[in-house]
Each structure stands twice: as structure tokens, then as C-alpha cells.
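We emphasize that the prediction below concerns an isolated chain of 191 residues; any contacts that depend on oligomerization or on bound cofactors are therefore not represented. The input was used exactly as deposited, without trimming of termini.
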Amino acid sequence: MTIKYLNVLLLTIITTQLYAQPVEITNSLYETYDSYKEPTLNKRRIKHQELVPLVKGYRNNPKFDVTTVGSSIEGRTLSLISIGKGETDVFLWSQMHGDEPTATQAIFDILNFFDSDDFIDEKEEILKNLRLHFLPMLNPDGAEVFQRRNTLGVDINRDALRLQSPESKTLKRVRDSLSANFGFNLHDQST
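Result of the prediction step, given as a C-alpha cell string:
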């Protein structure tokens, strides 16, 4: 699944809960996707240092709330980017496997969509009803060397009970604090 299809799918899921014309919205989102695509994340491998200026930009944007929620074993920051005022919380996290960057790219495309001047009525409706929370890279140390596991050799996706790594503990702490109504653990399929 390409990033474009993932973005359209995620935005369609969100918008179809609020609108009766999902086909029209899906087609419009698909046709305008290139205007939201994050141009700096254009390689197969994405490293944490490439996200830092993007996160900083959202931290300085009044539409978004950005919180540092933890750090990796090697000291890379884990950030939560939130938008919306609704009572329904939706939590999306990506790249718990360091070699699966597609959803990280998709998250920044979606953030660009919410920051754009397009689809004003649709976005207003979405953000009135939902509070969206994005943790775009849970395993930055694995991403640094393009490997599934973190620096400790832990598969974060299999560490929900033992909580052996700081990244797993951060994910649990954020999930618990949000009490989100919906959670999306975003992965790649393969190259």
C-alpha cells in the first residue's frame, strides 16, 4: 500500500464517520494528495533528525499541540502532536518497527492536510468532533539503522506486557493518559 493510499484511507475513515458522501470526499482527497505530501520525507529510510524540524514547525503552529512524551534509549525525543477539540480521542502511532517508515510519512502528510487551507468545512467538522493524537516515530533508534528492533534488541510491538524498553513504557503511558476511544498502530507491509 503506498503512502498516498494509506493517507486517503485514514482520512476517508475519519470523514465517512461524519459525512454521507464518502466517494466524493475520497476522490477529492486522492486528487489533491500531492499538495499535502511532505516533500522532505521522500526516501525509503527516514531518520529521526529529519523529523525534528517538522515537529518544531508544528510546535510553533497554534493549530497543534506538541508535547515531548519521552525519549529513546539513545536519547532521541518522542513527540506527540495533537489537533482538534472533540470529545472522541483518536491515537495513531507509527514506526514502532524502525524499518517501517511508510506510516510516519503518512502522518506528516495528514498533518499537512490539517494545516492547509483546503477542505475547510470538512476539517472543521472533523476537528469539532475528534481530538487526533499522532506519535510519528516510536522507535527512532531502530529507524537510525533501519532495523525492526530498538537498541536493546526489543521488538516494541511485542513488549506490551513486559515493558522492557523506554519506548514501550512511553507508548503505554501516553495511551493510558489519553484514554483514547480509538487507537491505530500503523505499520508497513513490505517494500
